[in-house]
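Chapter summary example.
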Amino acid sequence: MDDCTENISYGHSMNDIFDDRLFKPPGTFMGLGYGHDLAGRGAAVLGIPYDNGTHPHRVGSRDGPRAIREASRLIRRYRPPDADFDPLERLRVIDCGDVKLVPSILEDAEASIEKAISLIASTGAVPVSMGGDGSVTIGQLRALATLYLDLVVLHVDSHTDANPGEERAKATGNTFIRAAQEGLVDVAASIHVGMRGTFYDPGIFKKARDLGYGLITYEELRTRGVDDITAELKHRLAGRPVYLCWDMDFFDPSCAPGVCAPIPGGPSADEGLRLLRGLSGLRFVAFDINTVSPPHDVRGMTAQLAAQVMYDCLVLLCSGPNRI
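The structure predicted for these 324 residues follows.
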């Protein structure tokens, strides 16, 4: 070291220079801190960058978490008049990063997802995950089922993901057949909401109902109205530990084009968000927002809507009863 270098005085210690008040991790959800210290956390964000790679036309939801984090920069922390507070601060939310996995290697991915969700949920923090295609759900359900023996699912989607057919026994469309077969949820109390469009097989709705699930089609939602449907859901699920699985293709492609399986004729962003916000007071134990496919998105609009859904889920968590 020469004399010039030895005589330089920067006026700060290394601890001052790298003070957390001056620096933040790049690319977290809504600028959250990154880490895995979950003590005292009410919720934790987790990316699940997985898709099966088996869809005949669309592959790309493995990049969903990255796109949602990027789009979340546009979401602000206060939503007056009903949510004029910062849910991220109130819940002390942290971004835990992504599950380490390899897309299309299903069994390994399911095991990694289950372990990651178990680590988060066992601390008392509510996992708020972003996929990823519908395959990301089964590992999460396995993790939550060990903690909540009376777990119920509220599945908001344009598809039931309870499709018959042995040839697709482990495809994204069979998640809730597997959940019923494995006894992961109370099927009789669980419900699918928003189904519409075309399907590969006949008898899709009947199959879900034969398994024991409740089912409300989008036509029924549109006819009865959001307020009537949310009242029914809150009565049905009151007091139960609720796993909310929200597939972004529930929305009409006009506001969410970048999804795995777009179905025209669905709810607007306003109608869908009113349904979500109307669920206040339920006891949510996990949120699973999935199927954002960035290669098929238009100027990030689906990712931004998914980020808004995640923010609104955190608001819901603030309004819910204390978790047991």
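To summarize the output: DSSP finds twelve helices and eight strands in the chain.
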